[in-house]
Specification:
The protein is an alpha+beta fold and 156 residues long. The protein folds into two domains: 47 residues, no CATH class; 91 residues, no CATH class. α2 runs antiparallel to α3. The two termini are 20 Å apart.
């Protein structure tokens, strides 16, 4: 039985990235313009839609399902994580830059300001933390905290 996610966010590209990708359409159309005008328009449309669709479809998903945090293809049990630290603005820039541990596992996307840092408490894991981009870092951190508390709560 599949469990509903407590939190789910697709880290899709920003509008400006999609607009910049769509600029490839007229470039492709110009390549085929000397051959045929109709072919040129079709090629431009196919290239533009293809690039935008590929960018959106390949966007990683961050999800808290049960007691597991999924970030892209990676996943970790929330019981192996410490207290999440959500950051935005200047704090997030510092956490992504000067304060970033080179051994940390990263899922950082440009155009997404917020991040959440999850310290890894597993002593056998060489990764000290997971750093994940999020448009709603407070909600992601709260979902992980709820998932961390849930297994410790006795069932009725």
């Amino acid at each position: 039985m599949s469990q509903e996610p407590a939190y789910r966010e697709r880290l899709s590209p920003s509008l400006w990235v999609l607009v910049a990708a769509a600029v490839c359409a007229p470039m492709a159309a110009l390549v085929f313009a000397p051959v045929d005008a109709t072919l040129s328009l079709v090629a431009g449309l196919v290239v533009g839609l293809g690039i935008v669709t590929a960018l959106i479809a390949s966007s990683p998903v961050v999800e808290v399902r049960g007691d597991v945090l999924h970030a892209g293809r990676a996943h970790i049990d929330v019981g192996l994580l410490g207290t999440p630290v959500p950051s935005q603005g200047e704090d997030a820039r510092a956490a992504r830059g000067a304060s970033l541990d080179a051994r940390a596992w990263l899922l950082i996307r440009g155009g997404i300001d917020g991040i959440v840092t999850f310290p890894v408490t597993d002593l056998d894991d060489p990764t000290p933390a997971w750093v994940i981009s999020s448009r709603t870092p407070d909600r992601l951190a709260a979902a992980v905290r709820r998932a961390q508390v849930r297994p410790r709560t006795p069932r009725r």
